[in-house]
Amino acid sequence: MNTKIVCNNLNITIKALRVYEQEGIVIPKRRENGYRDYSDKDVMKLQQVILLREMGFSLKEIKILLDKNKEKQNDIIHSFYFQMKVIENKINELQNIKLTLKENINQLLNAEESKEEVCFNNIREALEHNKAERKAWVDRWRFDDWAPKYDNIVKENPKDELGVFKKYDEVIEKVRKYIIKSLPKKVLDIGCGTGSLCGELDKSIYVTGIDQSIDMLLETKKRYPNMIYKLGNFLDKPVGKEEFDVVVTTYAFHHLNSREKNMALDYMIKYLKPNGKIIIGDLMFLNEEEKERKREEFYNRGRSDLWQIVEDEYYSNIEELKVYIEKKGYKLEYEHISNFTWIVTIYK
């Protein structure tokens, strides 16, 4: 594709194309006559550059991000995913500024003396915070590119001193048997990862897998092509209701805080058919007393560092879940597997 066509299609100037070429961001091949020839990949990359410029990223940041995206399969999917994440990051920046402006207004409404300088400082701090967060986001991008190795990392992690994934295979197998025993026609797996739980069922059961990692979904799609895949998470509002016989999740629920857990349970219930089941295999405590006993055990062993890892997540309190779910008219049963791992079943 020649320069004129690219400029017309993307509404971009020749000067901008030359700048991106000089910066090593998009370098088209040359034809025998010396004219530039932009490939489809070049055009797709330029589209990303335009969006990133609109979102306020510098050319240096753009080059770092696009270099990290090199050599990826499913280029068009990764391109759209990348652009979606850029917009999410920008929304977070704008929300931070909006909140700061609102706080400034409230301060000025109730101030007995001039607070303008304080308010301007608040805005400067918000902008500096956004700048630092954007740099951190650029540095982190593609950091979680570990989908192909995920299963081995979980099973063979020598640093898992907490025993978080102890009896991992047993948990997966047990939850899978619970699914099969329910004789479902349609199953929803939230946080499906690499499909280790439901992938083997995709030939006989209609399985939909949801995950917030595009790389996990693409890796799973290679292994289990019969599954249906959706990019998302627990807190996405259900589009369809009463659609699935079983909603299941393993080793993902502990990333949600208490409020988010309740919201996720509400959504999971909406996904369920009238006689459906929710099955959760995850890291939990039976109650606060058990959590306190565990905490004392770690502190007595001089391993408060390990306990801090537990505190950094949101291990469920089963008794609290039971109270919440019974108010919804459902029953909850639980089974302890090993260490922190429990299986919870919710049904009518």
- The number of helices is 13
Number of strands: 10
Oligomeric description of these chains? single chain
Structural class: alpha/beta
Write down the Rg: 25 Å
Low-confidence stretches: none
Termini separation: 60 Å
Could you please describe the fold and organization of this structure?
The protein is an alpha/beta fold. The chain is 51% helix and 16% strand. Helix 3 (40-54) runs parallel beside helix 5. Strands 3, 4, 5, 6, 7, 8, 9 and 10 form an eight-stranded mixed beta sheet that branches. The protein has a two-stranded antiparallel sheet with strand order 1-2. A hairpin with a 5-residue loop joins strand 1 (29-30) and strand 2. It contains 13 helices and ten strands.
Summarize the structure.
The chain has 348 residues and is an alpha/beta fold.
List the helices and strands and how they pair.
Layout: H1 3-10, H2 14-22, E1 29-30, E2 36-37, H3 40-54, H4 59-68, H5 75-110, H6 116-140, H7 150-155, H8 168-181, E3 186-190, E4 206-211, H9 214-223, E5 228-231, E6 244-250, H10 258-271, E7 272-285, H11 288-300, H12 304-311, E8 316-317, H13 318-327, E9 331-338, E10 341-347
Parallel strand pairs: 3-4, 3-6, 4-5, 6-7, 7-8
Antiparallel strand pairs: 1-2, 7-10, 9-10
Helix pairs in contact: 3-5, 5-6
Domain HTH merR-type: 1-68
Organism: Clostridium ganghwense
Keywords: Coiled coil, DNA-binding
